[in-house]
TrEMBL record:
Keyword Transmembrane helix: yes
Topological relation to the membrane, as annotated: Single-pass type II membrane protein
Residues passing through the membrane, by range: 21-42
Cell compartment(s), UniProt: Cell membrane
Keywords recorded for this protein, A-Z: Cell membrane, Chaperone, Membrane, Transmembrane, Transmembrane helix
Signal sequence region: none
Domain of life: Bacteria
Coarse class of the protein's main subcellular location: membrane
Protein name as it appears in the record: Ancillary SecYEG translocon subunit
Organism name: Undibacterium aquatile
Keyword Cell membrane among UniProt keywords: yes
Length: 216
């Protein structure tokens, strides 16, 4: 097939360009394809991990319903060991902490909650673990440690719960002014749908109402 002069010049330019940059272009393509393949493989791995973790979490829920402590502990251990990067591991540890607390095994409950705080995934799960751990520390009269768990930033939807728990701690310390302030903050931050809003109001009224009402 014959080429006209313009086409021959274009071919010559292409050959010269490929000769100069061909290896570089090839490597760029190889790297790009490898990165894409790696990304696809990682996504598939993540999906597979989440699927397996979901099945194991379902088994955990069945064990909770059956009150089979041994199976609960085994399922939680497997989720934390094999699928720590999934939210199911954090949820499982929270469930296990609740089960241990109900069984009056506070040491185990605290251990599970601490794992979520230190190694769990998801800010909301970590925040829940801190609030629940503060509650256990309150029961143990470790007030300073309980308040320490409630320091720092929390998701907006949990700030009312944090303030409510702080109020409980201050009441236990007989710091009623601080308790009133905390309960008032809890009321201000609680939405109308918050099921504990009425309880917060009852607790606030029980210690004399808001700071403003006491000063009048």
């Amino acid at each position: 097939m014959a080429y006209d002069l313009e086409e021959q010049e274009q071919l010559a330019t292409l050959k010269a360009t490929w000769k100069q940059y061909g290896n570089l272009i090839t490597w760029v393509l190889i790297i790009a394809l490898a990165a894409y393949a790696g990304w696809m493989q990682w996504n598939n791995y993540q999906t597979n991990q989440a699927g397996q973790a979901s099945q194991l979490y379902e088994e955990l829920q069945k064990s909770v319903t059956a009150k089979d402590v041994a199976k609960i502990q085994r399922a939680v251990g497997d989720l934390k060991e094999k699928f720590p990067a999934t939210s199911y591991a954090s949820m499982a540890a929270l469930v296990s902490a609740k089960t241990s607390f109900d069984a009056n095994d506070l040491k185990s409950a605290k251990s599970q909650l601490q794992w979520v705080i230190d190694s769990g995934k998801g800010d909301e799960y970590k925040a829940l673990a801190k609030i629940r751990l503060a509650g256990i520390l309150l029961d143990e009269k470790l007030f300073d440690e309980a308040l320490k768990q409630l320091s720092g930033e929390f998701p907006p939807e949990l700030q009312a719960d944090v303030a409510d728990r702080k109020g409980d701690i201050f009441v236990a310390q007989a710091k009623l002014d601080d308790a009133r302030k905390s309960y008032q903050v809890a009321l201000d931050k609680a939405t109308e749908k918050n099921s504990v809003k009425q309880l917060i109001q009852i607790k606030l009224d029980a210690i004399g109402g808001s700071v403003e009402s006491v000063s009048k």
